[in-house]
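step=encode ok
step=design start
structure_in=
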């Protein structure tokens, strides 16, 4: 019988098989909890309370993000935590300038509806987090990224999703701000050029969440039926 493969941990040799566990399905209660987090997760824009988020909770959320899958196990993410009101105010000013540009891209009723949306999370949420992707981490050649250079960015998005679901489980609201000029945020947060800004998040406790996505409730868009998005075997000639 062949000797089992081994993994070196410090100066100890440990069998890889000893690091495996049974892939048992979750119990019904555990499955329900996972799906509840998925289906009730919301993008919070304006409902944040001023109550502080403790360091213990914040570290649990960041640890959940850090346990996201990453191609080549490169773990390209960093998390810039912004708490100071003065710093968040500077970010908000940059957002406002970009938001006005965004509003001008719509016209008529669509523009009016856009301007009616309240996007005050940067100032109201007690914690802001800028999630970045260090595109040099792992070196020039990374396992799994050899033919798709953006896999590091996709991995960082997985970290955000982990954080978002963990936040829902903790009763913490999260909003993803995407309306800003990256150069403005890069300068304000001293982010190097080789590091990409993947997401700017607002975190804080909320009393209520919409039963459906806010943009659906307010008539901006509606959820596409799943059956329209599933193709069998190949992309159809006529979707």
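sequence_out=
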């Amino acid at each position: 019988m062949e000797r089992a493969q081994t993994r070196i941990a410090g100066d100890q040799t440990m069998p890889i098989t000893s690091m495996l566990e049974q892939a048992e399905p979750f119990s019904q209660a555990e499955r329900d909890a996972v799906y509840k987090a998925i289906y009730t997760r919301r993008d919070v824009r304006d409902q944040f309370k001023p109550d502080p988020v403790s360091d213990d909770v914040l570290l649990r959320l960041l640890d959940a993000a850090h346990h996201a899958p990453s191609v080549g196990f490169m773990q390209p993410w960093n998390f810039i935590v912004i708490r100071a009101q003065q710093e968040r105010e500077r970010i908000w000013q940059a957002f406002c300038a970009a938001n006005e540009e965004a509003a001008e891209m719509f016209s008529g009723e669509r523009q009016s509806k856009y301007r009616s949306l309240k996007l005050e999370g940067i100032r109201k949420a007690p914690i802001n987090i800028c999630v970045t992707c260090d595109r040099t981490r792992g070196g020039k050649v990374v396992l799994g990224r050899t033919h798709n250079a953006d896999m590091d960015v996709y991995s960082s998005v997985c970290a955000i999703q982990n954080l978002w679901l963990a936040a829902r489980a903790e009763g913490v609201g999260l909003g993803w701000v995407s309306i800003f000029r990256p150069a403005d945020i890069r300068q304000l947060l001293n982010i190097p050029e080789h590091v990409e800004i993947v997401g700017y998040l607002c975190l804080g406790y909320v009393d209520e969440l919409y039963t459906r996505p806010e943009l659906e409730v307010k008539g901006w868009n509606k959820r596409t039926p799943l059956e329209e998005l599933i193709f069998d075997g190949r992309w159809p000639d006529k979707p």
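step=design ok
step=annotate ok -> The helical segments are 28-40, 55-66, 85-104, 108-116, 121-124, 151-170, 182-189, 214-217.
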